[in-house]
Amino acid sequence: MRYLFGVVLPALLQVLVVFIVVETNTGNGSWAGLAAYLIGIFAIPLTAIINALYIWKSPDEHFLNMIGKCFSISVIAPILCLFMMFL
User: Containing H/E element for 83?
Assistant: First the structure.
């Protein structure tokens, strides 16, 4: 259950944000969709690995504290993707 909420859900959140940014910037001549795609290619697997290692290394940590840290790590990529839309 810890891996579902700590690894899978943050990864799905990242995939959703990258997909929305790429689809909104299709065909308008903007490079923001490509930048979001490239950020997603590297950031989604990297944060999933980091979150999985974090959960594996700290089995005694409280569940809500662990979920908060995993989501705070994985929110970096969506913020970068949303920032690319406004450049």
Answer: helix 76-85
Residues with Cβ within 8 Å of residue 54, at least 6 apart in sequence: 6, 66, 69, 70, 73
Triad 43, 1, 11: Cα angle to 5°: 15
For residue 54 the two structure tokens come to: 């974090």
Instruction: Kindly report the number of other CB atoms within 10 A of residue 49's CB atom.
Output: 11
Are 67 and 6 spatial neighbours (Cβ–Cβ below 8 Å)? yes
In which band, very low, low, confident or very high, does the pLDDT at 25 lie, cut at 50, 70 and 90? confident
Q: Which residue has the higher pLDDT, 62 or 27?
A: 62
Q: Are 73 and 50 in contact (CB under 8 A)?
A: yes
